[in-house]
Recover the amino acids of this structure.
């Protein structure tokens, strides 16, 4: 075993604008995941997703610096000595962001704000303005994406080039199975591990697709959740597999790129 790391997803049903209920549900699931080093929770886990108006979108939003929901999760990180990436409805000033927050045993580590807003999210959230940071968690590197970001290959490539070993992907996926097909391919083309924590259940006419997954750098699905049930998925990884970017004896994932031919992408 090269660099061992135990990762997991929490597949659950965040209660719509009822973070107290969500914390009660998470309490039990997080205790079941105590053996993990790094966990991922769904998108907008403190609020739910399908808002009908701006008031609903704001009802459970909190600042990262003063959040009862994040304090609860921080206590869990301290108790079980794991790191955790959660989707978070973030209030900053007057603005809302669809954010992924990374916490650990010592507290807040960092955040990423979703770059690619999906459908009605555009009515409530500001697009991300913090770029695509990666975080060193003491010997390994983590990147963050949120749900619909999966559709944009550019963000996966950037995180892989920044040295991410694991990409944490809090999600509320609704398109039927598309992301679950694409994510193992993104893991393969970036030679990274991906942990997608998707939610289950319905809000009004939206049904979330579950099937959370852990994908490996050869495109393999190492763990997959059901479509409908709250679940914890845990998998032991060898991060050396993500650090070996040789595809064949003569092909290197990074060195074989031809960036001089890629300028069109940013025109
Ligand atoms: C999504 O980005 N929540 C579909």
């Amino acid at each position: 075993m090269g660099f061992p790391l135990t990762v997991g997803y929490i597949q659950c049903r965040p209660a719509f604008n009822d973070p107290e209920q969500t914390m009660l549900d998470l309490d039990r699931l997080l205790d079941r995941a105590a053996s993990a080093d790094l966990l991922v929770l769904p998108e907008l886990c403190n609020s739910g997703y399908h808002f009908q108006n701006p008031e609903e979108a704001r009802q459970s939003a909190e600042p990262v610096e003063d959040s009862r929901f994040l304090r609860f999760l921080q206590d869990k990180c301290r108790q079980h000595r794991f790191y955790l990436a959660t989707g978070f409805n973030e209030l900053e000033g007057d603005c809302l962001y669809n954010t992924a927050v990374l916490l650990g045993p010592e507290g807040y580590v960092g955040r990423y704000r979703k770059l690619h807003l999906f459908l009605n999210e555009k009515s409530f959230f500001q697009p991300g303005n913090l770029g695509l940071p990666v975080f060193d968690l003491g010997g390994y590197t983590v990147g963050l994406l949120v749900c619909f970001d999966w559709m944009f290959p550019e963000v996966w490539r950037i995180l892989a080039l920044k040295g991410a070993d694991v990409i944490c992907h809090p999600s509320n996926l609704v398109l039927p199975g598309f992301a679950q097909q694409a994510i193992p391919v993104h893991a393969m083309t970036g030679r990274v591990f991906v942990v997608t924590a998707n939610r289950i259940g319905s809000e009004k006419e939206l049904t979330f697709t579950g099937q959370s997954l852990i994908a490996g750098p050869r495109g393999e699905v190492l763990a997959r959740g059901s479509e409908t049930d709250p679940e914890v998925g845990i998998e032991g990884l060898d991060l050396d597999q993500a650090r070996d970017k040789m595809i064949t004896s003569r092909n290197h994932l990074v060195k074989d790129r031809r960036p001089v031919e890629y300028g069109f992408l940013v025109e």
